[in-house]
Predict the 3D structure of the following.
Amino acid sequence: MAGGLGGLQGLGGVLNGLAQEAFYGHQGITEELLRSQLYPEVSLEEFRPFLAKMRGILKSIASADMDFNQLEAFLTAQTKKQGGISSDQATVISKFWKSHKIKIRESLVNQSRWDSGLRGLSWRVDGKSQSRHSAQIHTPVAIMELEIGKSGQESEFLCLEFDEVKVNQLLKKLSEVEESISTLMQPA
Amino acid sequence: MEGCSEPRLDAKSEVTNQLVDFQWKLGMAVSSDSCRSLKYPYVAVLLKVADHSGQVKNKSFEMTIPQFQNFYRQFKEIAAVIETV
C-alpha cells in the first residue's frame, strides 16, 4: 500500500465524500476533488483504485444494512483478502458506519420511494358554514389540507372537506389500516 | 347576507374537494437496486376526490408507518372535535 493512502484521517473524509455522493445525492464530488483535498500527495492513478475499493466496501455494507456482527465479520474478511484493507482502516470504516448507518438507511429508503409522500397535514373544524351549493347551515365541517410531494419536487396542496358522516366513514377505514399494521408487526 | 360565506381558507390550495373514495394498501418494500435489504413497511393511499364541478381526480401517496399513525391520530382528533361542535 502506498504510504500516502495509509493515512487514516483522509479515509474518514473519503467515506464522507462517498456517502454524500452515493446516498445523500450531492453531485459534483469527483475523484479529483477528494484526492486533492484529502490525499494531495497521491497521484490520481493510485487514488482511483483505492477510492473504488472503499466505495465498493461502503456500498456492500449499506446494501445489506449490516448489523454490527455482520459488519465485523465482513471487515475482518476484507483485512484478510489480497489487496484488501488494513485493520486500522477497518476500524475507521466501522466507526463511520456506526455513526452514519441510520441516516444512510433513511436515504436509501427515500431513494426507493417513487410515489409522492405525505409532507404535511393541517386541519380545522368550522362550526357553522353555509355553502353556496346547498342550503344547509349549522353543519360542522372539517377541512383538511394535505401537503403531498415527490422527492425533489414542489409540494402539491390538496384540500378536503368532510362532514361528520364522512369523518366517521374515513375513521373506520383508517382503523382497518391500523389493524393490518398490527397484524404485520406481530412477531412471527 | 349575514352568515353566508364560504369557509375562509388560509389553506394554500384555493379549492376544497370532496373525498369520494379512499383506497389503501399496506406494503412491504423488500429490496431495491440500491439496497438489497430494505425491509420497510409503508401505507399507500389512493384518494378519489371531486371538486366543485364534480370532476373526479385520483391522488396517490405513500406514508411510512409513523406518518400513518400520526395521520390516524389527527383524524381521531378531528372526529372528537366535530362531534362536540
In short: Chain B touches chain A through 56 residues (CB under 8 Å). Chain B has one domain: 15-81.
